[in-house]
C-alpha cells in the first residue's frame, strides 16, 4: 500500500491519504451535470445486472448474519439449523455464480483508489470536469459500490488509444466509503 498526497477539491487543502491498487470490475457512463448529485443507486442510472445481483446478495448476507447473531442469543439450536441452511444456499448460489454469472462479468482491470477517488485506464478520453456514474465490484466480492464521480484528468498513456483517467467521488454512500476504507486497511493488492 502506498501513501500519496492527494488534492482535495473543496479548497486548497492537501492531505496524506492511503491508496491501493486492486483489480476491480468497473463500469461507467458519462452523465449530465444536472444529475451528478443524484443518489448513485437511483433507478434512473443504468446499473449492470451482475452488479445488482451481487450487491443484493451482499446486503442479504449482511442482514442474515446480523439476524443469526441475534437469534443465537435466544435459541442456539434454531440459529445453528438456519446457519446450516444458509451454508447450503451459499453452495448452490456459488455453483450458479461460477457457471452462469462469471461468464457475464467484465474483466477486472487495475484501479488505483482511495476513499475520495480513483484512477483507471479507458479507451475514451473523458473530458475534465465532466461527471460519470460508476460501479466498482471487487472480484472476490469484498464490495460492490455505485458512485458518481467528477473527472479530474484524462492523460494519454504510452499505449496507443488509451488514457489514464483520474476522478474523485461526488456522491458516495457512507457505508460504501467504509467498505473502501476496510479494503484499503487490509492492505491487500489483487492482481489482474
DSSP summary, beta strand count: 7
- Helix tally equals 3
Residues in helices, as a percent range: 25-40%
**Cα end-to-end separation:** 16 Å
Strand % is: 25-35%
What's the average pLDDT? 79
Following the backbone from N to C, one meets helices and strands in this order, namely EEHHEEEEEH
Biggest β-sheet strands, sense, barrel: 6 strands, antiparallel, barrel
Low-confidence stretches: 1-16, 188-192
Radius of gyration: 19 Å
> Shape from CA axes?
elongated
Structural class: alpha+beta
Describe the secondary structure blueprint for this structure.
Elements: E1 2-7, E2 14-31, H1 49-74, H2 76-99, E3 109-113, E4 117-122, E5 131-137, E6 144-156, E7 163-171, H3 174-186
Antiparallel strand pairs: 1-2, 2-3, 2-5, 3-4, 4-7, 5-6, 6-7
Helix pairs in contact: 1-2
Amino acid at each position: 500500500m502506498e501513501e500519496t498526497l492527494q488534492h482535495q477539491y473543496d479548497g486548497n487543502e492537501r492531505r496524506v491519504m492511503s491508496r491501493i491498487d486492486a483489480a476491480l470490475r468497473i463500469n461507467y457512463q458519462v452523465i449530465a451535470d444536472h444529475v451528478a448529485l443524484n443518489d448513485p443507486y437511483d433507478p434512473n442510472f443504468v446499473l449492470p445486472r451482475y452488479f445488482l445481483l451481487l450487491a443484493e446478495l451482499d446486503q442479504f448476507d449482511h442482514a442474515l448474519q446480523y439476524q443469526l447473531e441475534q437469534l443465537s442469543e435466544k435459541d442456539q439450536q434454531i440459529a445453528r439449523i438456519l446457519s446450516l441452511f444458509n451454508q447450503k444456499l451459499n453452495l448452490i448460489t456459488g455453483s450458479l455464480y461460477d457457471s452462469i454469472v462469471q461468464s457475464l462479468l467484465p474483466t477486472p482491470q487495475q484501479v488505483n483508489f482511495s476513499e475520495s477517488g480513483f484512477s483507471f485506464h479507458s479507451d475514451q478520453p473523458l473530458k475534465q470536469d465532466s461527471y460519470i456514474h460508476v460501479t466498482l465490484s471487487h472480484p472476490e466480492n469484498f464490495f460492490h459500490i455505485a458512485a458518481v464521480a467528477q473527472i479530474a484528468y484524462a492523460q494519454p498513456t504510452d499505449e496507443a488509444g488509451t488514457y489514464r483517467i483520474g476522478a474523485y467521488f461526488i456522491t458516495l454512500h457512507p457505508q460504501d466509503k467504509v467498505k473502501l476504507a476496510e479494503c484499503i486497511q487490509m492492505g491487500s493488492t489483487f492482481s489482474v
